[in-house]
Structure formats: structure tokens, C-alpha cells
Design brief:
By secondary structure, this protein is of the alpha/beta class. Helices cover about 40% and strands about 20% of the residues. It is built from ten helices and ten strands. Strands 3-2-1-4-5-8-9-10 form an eight-stranded mixed beta sheet, with helices on both faces. α9 links the parallel β9 and β10. α4 crosses α5. The protein is globular, with a radius of gyration of 16 Å. The structure holds NADP nicotinamide-adenine-dinucleotide phosphate (NAP). NADP nicotinamide-adenine-dinucleotide phosphate binds next to α1 and α5.
Length: about 220
């Protein structure tokens, strides 16, 4: 598959790298290719710059959001939650139309600590994206674990924990489920239509408290029936 991964942060890097490792042809998207490659210092969170990651993954293409969205047959939204609608607008509605858009975002508002969600309760970012880009096939998934666990669930516990999907299009969810299985996920729960993303986005509130309690980001939710 030719994949367009919109986002140059930890999630974009993790998913682009893993898809490429699995043999897919991957193009990562960013606002401004030159500006992204010019950054040589770690960001405020101490994450190493994209250029350092890219030097180790030269097989991954790099383009603007529009370029990556145009080239990708399957797309991933790994952009900042507060800026996702802006980033996807830059990617271009025409470039999203008819394509699977795996949405791994959380709409976190970091202006208060601990961060809150916006939207929340009666709406979700997954739904906002689906409404803004009705021809895209949005599937919310992977937003309930840290980037490293998204692509290698077996790095925590026995790997038999749970990942969730929300989306309106059954075929798009089948495509995403196949990718998730390739990443190593074995317990994939299809929660239903895109409105169910409200539930998994709100799981981040618990996730943040667990991160505080455990002192690590490397854990997952396991649903026991
Ligand atoms: N980090 C995790 O482990 C984790 C786990 C679960 C879910 N998530 C979610 O995944 C998404 C990505 O997270 P992340 O940690 O990889 O990085 P992030 O810092 O949240 O997002 C980085 C991406 O957002 C883009 N961006 C930032 N501000 C923008 C703006 N004003 N307009 C357009 N684009 C903008 C950046 O563009 P440039 O490329 O141009 O810099 C970059 O591609 C977020 O929604 C986050 O909530 C993250």
C-alpha cells in the first residue's frame, strides 16, 4: 500500500517507520519540509528532531501535508489534536476524498494542566474530522496508547491488550484492522460508528492519570469479557 502519514511528531515517526518496515511505500507529511528538516534541536518535550529520525529512515518520503495526502492511498492523521482540522485542510479535501483516514489523535488542550479535552462528551475530534471531510473514511484508532505501543503492542505485558476502532465505513475499518494486526494487535474492538470516538478520546483522561501513577507511558488497556 502507498501510505501518507500526516504528522512529523512521535506518532507520525512511529507509524511511518513501522509501515515502511512492513514493506509499504510511505510518505510523511509536514507543514513545511524545509523548516522541519532545519530543526536540529529537541523540542520542548525533549523529543529528538524529525531530521534525526529521518536520517535513520531514508526510505520514507517527506512532503507537505498536501503532497503526502495526494500520494497516499491510505492516510494516517498524526497531527496535533488542536491543529488537526487546520492540517487536514492544508492536506486538501480532494486528497482525502474516498480514502481511509486512520485518525490517531486526541483533542488535548494543554493550556491547563493536567490537559483537558476539547471537544468532549457530546462531540469528538474524530466526528469533527468526519463532518469537515465527509468524503474521507475516518477510522479512529490507536489513540489510547503511546506512540511506541501503537506500533508494537507486545512491548507491554503479553501484547494481548486491547485497541479500539470507531468509524462509519465497514470496509475502511476492515482495512485499518488489517494494518493493526500487522502491527501486532490481536484484540481489536470495533465500537461502532464515529460517534463512539467520544469514548476512546475520553479514555485519555484515565490514561494521563495512569501515566502519573505508573511513572511510564508504556501500558495499555485490556478489556476482559
Ligand atoms: N505522542 C503520543 O504518544 C500519542 C499517543 C496517542 C495519541 N497521540 C495523538 O497523536 C497526535 C500526534 O501526536 P505527536 O505526539 O506525534 O505530535 P504533536 O506535537 O501533537 O503533533 C505534531 C504534528 O502536528 C502538526 N502541527 C502542530 N501544530 C500545527 C498547526 N498549527 N497547523 C498544522 N499542523 C500543526 C506538526 O506539524 P509539523 O510537521 O509542520 O511540525 C506535526 O506534524 C496528537 O493528536 C496526539 O494527541 C499522541
Amino acid at each position: 500500500v502507498k501510505a501518507g502519514v500526516l504528522g512529523s511528531g512521535r506518532v507520525g515517526q512511529a507509524i511511518a517507520g513501522r509501515l515502511s518496515e512492513l514493506g509499504h511505500d510511505v510518505v510523511a507529511g509536514t507543514r513545511d519540509v524545509e523548516a522541519t528538516l532545519a530543526r536540529t534541536e529537541p523540542d520542548a518535550m525533549g523529543n529528538r528532531p524529525f531530521s534525526a529520525w529521518w536520517a535513520e529512515h531514508p526510505q520514507v518520503g517527506l512532503a507537505t501535508f498536501a503532497g503526502a495526502a495526494e500520494q497516499g492511498e491510505v492516510l494516517v492523521n498524526a497531527t496535533n489534536g488542536a491543529a488537526s482540522l487546520q492540517a487536514l485542510t492544508a492536506a486538501g479535501a480532494d486528497n482525502l476524498a474516498g480514502k481511509v483516514l486512520l485518525d490517531a489523535t486526541n483533542p488535548l488542550d494543554f493550556s491547563v494542566m493536567p490537559p483537558t479535552l476539547n471537544p468532549v462528551n457530546s462531540d469528538s475530534l474524530g466526528e469533527q474530522i468526519q463532518r469537515a471531510f465527509p468524503e474521507a473514511k475516518v477510522v479512529k484508532a490507536l489513540n489510547t496508547v503511546t506512540a511506541a505501543v501503537m506500533i508494537r503492542p507486545a512491548m507491554v505485558g503479553d501484547g494481548d491488550h486491547t485497541v479500539f476502532m470507531s468509524g462509519d465505513d465497514a470496509d475502511a475499518k476492515a482495512t485499518v484492522a488489517a494494518l493493526l494486526r500487522d502491527f501486532g494487535w490481536r484484540d481489536i474492538v470495533d465500537l461502532g460508528d464515529i460517534t463512539t470516538a467520544r469514548g476512546t478520546e475520553m479514555m485519555i483522561a484515565v490514561w494521563l492519570r495512569m501515566m502519573q501513577a505508573f511513572g511510564t507511558t508504556e501500558f495499555g488497556y485490556k478489556i476482559v469479557r
